[in-house]
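Input.
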Amino acid sequence: MASTPESIKLQIDDITNLPTLPSVVKFVTSMVEQEDASAQEIGNIISRDQVLSAKLLRMVNSPFYGFPGRISSVTHALVLLGFNVVKGLVLGTAVFDNMGHGTQGLWKHSLGTAVIARKIAKHVGMNDAEEIMVGGLLHDLGKVVLSFIAPGEYEMAVHLAEENHIHIGEAELKVFGVDHAQVGLWVAEQWHLPEQLQDILYHHHNPDAAELNPRGAAIIHVADILARCMDYGYPGDFSMPTLSHESYRSLGLYPQDIQNILQDTDQDFEADVSIFASGD
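Output.
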């Protein structure tokens, strides 16, 4: 039976039908929503999963964050980076580890987008550069979910995109009646991710329509395209999304700025891949 937007939405609404994520992820998702939850309590829960906590500490102690070797506990990471950032990192890592079998190329693309997005955000003086980075890491979350829920149909969408030289989102609409941006929004809503992050995930291909975080959506939009230009991983097709010139201009970036950002990113990317590596 072919998947429909309604059937996909039902499976996402019933989150237990998604792959069995570590129980710690479910605890973190619920506890972060509790106003009285402390960093110590959440840190203790994440630390129960040795693989997940070890990976998180590798991330935050990498040169990528500028705290090499200085963060010794999950609680310390929560205090420094904030609940939403750590929650996004935990969810992103868990999803790709548990749902993203065979999507290593997509993980690398997502990571490349995240690294570039963080550098752009810092360059333009945004205070929430770490949360923008999480938006880059999760921007293609819907692709992972679709490929898990309906692997055969998603493979059809990938082939359709390649054969017709169209964007994967257009192919997803033809096969499923819904694209990965919409699916990513549905998952983000179920996980109670911040509304500004939901706005980024939904509008990363159409940042001009973003209402809550247009600047963040513009950064992810540009970073996604630049990650494709740099051949970071495989985003599911070989076409280039249409650049929103209005969003690009809104960031005030000059060609030399882009060149410097990409040179800086390229120096660190392979090291970041090994640190953030999925499934190790």
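Residues 32 and 182 are 24 Å apart (CA to CA).
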